[in-house]
Amino acid sequence: MARPRALVLAALLPLLAACGGAGAAQGTELTGTVLDPPFEVSSTPLVDTAGDAFSLTDDTDKPLTLVFFGYSNCPDICGQVMATLAGTLARLDDAQKDDLDVVFVTTDPARDDEATTAKYVEAFDPSIIGLTGDLDDIVEVGTSLAVGIDKGEKLPSGGYDVTHGTRVYAIDGDDESPMMWDQDVSQAQLAHDVTVLLDEG
Predict the structure, then answer these.
(1) Model confidence over 38-75: pLDDT tens digits?
(2) Which end is more exposed in the chain, N or C (fewer Cβ atoms within 10 Å of the end residue's Cβ)?
């Protein structure tokens, strides 16, 4: 059962002063940035790799969800963050994995359909949930987490720029995001923070 947001934040806020450094992942100190107030996550449904509707609030009933917005053709950051998420999962035990969902949301649904998104996430870890859908819906969900998403103008090469997030966001059992991590968080740091958050939950 999810704890009230006030109790979760009461547990997290004393740790904020220790956040943000490579040496922070010790004891119960957290590397991530606490969001106060937390983001209220949009319930707008997207589309999973089976073609079914999937909402980051209604369909994430585990104590903790990690979500990242990127796209399969990204040349650098997305692969780095996805590898960090996969490495984090590898560091957790089975009980922790049972209490955690990891979600990838494409910001390029024109190219990342269900099949492409499925292939992309499975290359990192088959347990990662891949989401696509209508771009306007993805923008709405991303905006609720302060993720700027926009398909830029067409390039001379025929392609186009795609904007996406660089952070990983936590979503708790109250459908709010109380914490985020920058793209340079390590697997060890993220796994440590996930362990602390699950223990606090």
Answers:
(1) 999 999 999 999 999 999 999 998 999 999 999 999 88
(2) N
CA atoms of 55 and 57, how far apart (whole Å): 5
Contact predicate 189/22, CB 8 Å? yes
Neighbours of 55 (CB within 10 A): 16
Give residue 142's identity as a one-letter amino acid code: G
Identify residue 195 by its one-letter amino acid code: T
Within 10 angstroms of residue 77's Cβ, the number of other Cβ atoms is 15
Q: Which distant-in-sequence residues (6+ apart) come within 8 Å of 123 by Cβ?
A: none
Q: Alpha carbon 184 to chain centroid distance?
A: 14
Which SS3 state, helix, strand or coil, does residue 93 take? coil
What pTM does this model have?
0.83
Q: Token pair of 48, please?
A: 């999973």
179, 30 in Cβ contact below 8 A? yes
| Strand-strand pairing, 129-132 and 46-48 | antiparallel
Which CA distances in Å does 169 have to 103, 136, 180, 192? Answer: 10, 20, 4, 15
Enter the DSSP assignment of 189.
Answer: H
